């Protein structure tokens, strides 16, 4: 399985290039790859059934190493692998958004059924409701990185509003992959835009990272 490694001074991330959401961190490269292998079965449990047969893990090949940044050391992947900067066709975008939707749905289900979560060693840590709010607000922010945006409709129920926001996210990914100009340029200009494959990767990682946190703290 081809992976990339993003190494900061505090954290190192390893991500499976063709499987958005399968990304783990460690204190060094070996630990991050160990975490990746250790979460493969959990990832399979989230993966859409029609894609499970294509998932094979017989080892890793690190095909790209990236220097991390402040985001990496804060605890989130922040560098874009060259794999995600390539042109992505309509069929691959359908596959990627299919995986992303499955990650969102798995997070929703796990968060909704979660009971009280164990606190961290210092008594901290979000509860499932706060985690859900955090994940959804992050996706709203990621929309700006796609040159899009979303304004909540107060007339809608929260679940319907969330579904509408996610539809906007997928539509923005599809539009970006098709080469359509962004509807709204970020303040940082074109350099601030994310490639559509990376937007999927970042959102899927975030959903699964917190899904697995909920499971581990339950």
Defining key terms:
218 residues, alpha+beta, 2 domains, 8 helices, 50% helix
Within the largest sheet, what's the order of strands? 3-2-1-4
Uncertain spans:
none
Structural class: alpha+beta
**Tally of domains:** 2
N- to C-terminal distance = 31 Å
Counted by DSSP, the helix tally is 8
Query: What is the helix content?
Result: 40-55%
Q: Can you summarize the main beta sheet?
A: 4 strands, mixed
- Say how many strands there are: 4
Q: Output the radius of gyration.
A: 17 Å
Shape descriptor reads globular
Strand content: 5-15%
Topology:
Layout (H helix, E strand, L loop, with lengths): L1 E6 L4 E5 L6 E4 L2 H10 L1 H7 L2 H4 L8 E7 L2 H5 L15 H24 L14 H18 L12 H20 L18 H22 L1
Parallel strand pairs: 1-4
Antiparallel strand pairs: 1-2, 2-3
Helix pairs in contact: 5-6, 5-7, 5-8, 6-7, 6-8, 7-8
Could you characterize what this model shows?
The chain is α+β, with helices and mostly antiparallel strands. It folds into 2 domains: 2-83; 87-217. Helix content is 50%, strand content 10%. The chain has helices at residues 29-38, 40-46, 49-52, 70-74, 90-113, 128-145, 158-177, 196-217; strands at 2-7, 12-16, 23-26, 61-67. It has a 4-stranded mixed beta sheet with strand order 3-2-1-4, covered by helices on one side. Strand 2 and strand 3 form a beta hairpin. Helix 5 (90-113) packs antiparallel against helix 6 and helix 6 (128-145) runs parallel beside helix 7 (158-177). It starts with a strand and ends with a helix.
């Amino acid at each position: 399985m081809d992976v990339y490694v993003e190494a900061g001074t505090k954290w190192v991330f390893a991500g499976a290039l063709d499987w958005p959401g399968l990304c783990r961190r460690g204190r060094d490269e070996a630990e991050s790859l160990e975490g990746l292998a250790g979460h493969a079965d959990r990832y399979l449990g989230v993966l859409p059934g029609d894609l499970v047969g294509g998932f094979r893990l017989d080892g890793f090949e690190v095909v790209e190493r990236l220097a991390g940044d402040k985001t990496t050391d804060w605890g989130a992947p922040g560098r874009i692998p060259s794999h995600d900067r390539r042109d992505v066709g309509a069929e691959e975008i359908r596959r990627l958004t299919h995986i992303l939707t499955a990650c969102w749905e798995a997070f929703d289900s796990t968060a909704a059924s979660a009971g009280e979560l164990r606190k961290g060693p210092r008594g901290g840590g979000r509860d499932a409701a706060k985690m859900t709010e955090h994940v959804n607000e992050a996706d709203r922010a990621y929309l700006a990185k796609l040159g899009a945006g979303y304004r909540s409709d107060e007339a809608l129920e929260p679940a319907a509003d969330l579904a509408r926001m996610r539809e906007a996210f997928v539509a923005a990914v599809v539009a970006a992959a098709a080469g359509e100009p962004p509807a709204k340029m970020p303040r940082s200009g074109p350099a601030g835009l994310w490639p559509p494959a990376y937007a999927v990767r970042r959102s899927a990682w975030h959903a699964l990272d917190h899904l697995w946190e909920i499971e581990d703290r339950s």
